């Protein structure tokens, strides 16, 4: 097979960042008489970037969603999250080991996330996996972020590879649409909100190491 590069979504796919994101959301909500919201509840709103996250949270909490409130909510949330970017964040089961295994098997690795770019680099470094990825591109480092296919293209271009070598792995419909529009195969993880994403069984991952067998089955012969 020619496909030897895997680009991953970050939140909900490699890391369970929902507890830190929920803590940052709750530090915004509590002085306004709302929350605290559980990490599970907040997780449902993650995947479209922080501005949309806060717009959805304000609406969910029946707070005003006018432009000025949203701008302030977005800025305060980011300030809170930047202060504690990986205090409660954990890898999903087997992720750390399976990334190493995939790298060992010759897969080149990248990340395409709607998390802000600088925060992405900071979190990868705090979790000590930054060296595993040839490129990790956050939403504000591109003109059009996911679900726009240019965001994913920016990652494979930064890796210096062709889209024919790429598969994308994620946990949301945003990720599924992005891959579809970019014309690359999409695999959904079976954890977090990924379990709700409709894909054929051959494109469902129970752990990241399944990619080895799946790509052999879907690309060979
Ligand atoms: O919405 C975000 O902030 C990031 O989400 P993603 O890593 O799943 O793209
Ligand atoms: Mg995600």
UniProtKB/TrEMBL annotation:
Cofactor(s) the protein needs: Mg(2+)
Domain of life: Bacteria
GO biological process: carbohydrate metabolic process; DNA repair
Keyword list, A-Z: Carbohydrate metabolism, Hydrolase, Magnesium, Metal-binding
EC numbers, comma separated: 3.1.3.18
An example molecular function term from Gene Ontology annotations: metal ion binding
Catalyzed reactions per annotation: 2-phosphoglycolate + H2O = glycolate + phosphate
Pfam families the record matches: HAD_2
Pathway: Organic acid metabolism; glycolate biosynthesis; glycolate from 2-phosphoglycolate: step 1/1
SUPFAM superfamilies with a match to the protein in the record: HAD-like
GO cellular component: cytosol
Gene3D superfamilies in the cross-refs: HAD superfamily/HAD-like, Putative phosphatase, domain 2
Family: Belongs to the HAD-like hydrolase superfamily. CbbY/CbbZ/Gph/YieH family.
The protein's name: phosphoglycolate phosphatase
Species: Devosia elaeis
């Amino acid at each position: 097979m020619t496909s030897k590069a895997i680009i991953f979504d970050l939140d909900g796919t490699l890391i369970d960042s929902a507890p830190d994101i929920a803590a940052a959301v709750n530090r915004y909500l509590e002085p306004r008489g709302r929350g605290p919201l559980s990490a599970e509840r907040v997780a449902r709103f993650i995947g479209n970037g922080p501005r949309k996250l806060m717009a959805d949270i304000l609406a969910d909490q029946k707070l005003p969603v006018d432009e000025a409130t949203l701008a302030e909510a977005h800025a305060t949330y980011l300030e809170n999250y930047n202060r504690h970017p990986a205090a409660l964040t954990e890898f999903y089961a087997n992720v750390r080991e399976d990334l190493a295994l995939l790298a060992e098997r010759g897969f080149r690795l990248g990340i395409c996330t709607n998390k802000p770019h600088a925060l992405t680099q900071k979190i990868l470094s705090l979790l000590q996996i930054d060296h595993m990825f040839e490129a990790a591109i956050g939403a504000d480092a591109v003109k059009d972020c996911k679900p726009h296919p240019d965001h994913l293209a920016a990652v494979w271009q930064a890796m210096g590879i062709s889209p024919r070598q790429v598969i994308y792995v994620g946990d949301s419909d945003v990720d599924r649409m992005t891959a579809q529009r970019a014309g690359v195969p999409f695999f959904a993880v079976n954890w977090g909100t990924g379990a709700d994403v409709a894909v054929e069984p051959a494109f469902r991952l129970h752990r990241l190491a399944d990619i080895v067998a799946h790509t052999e089955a879907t690309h060979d012969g």
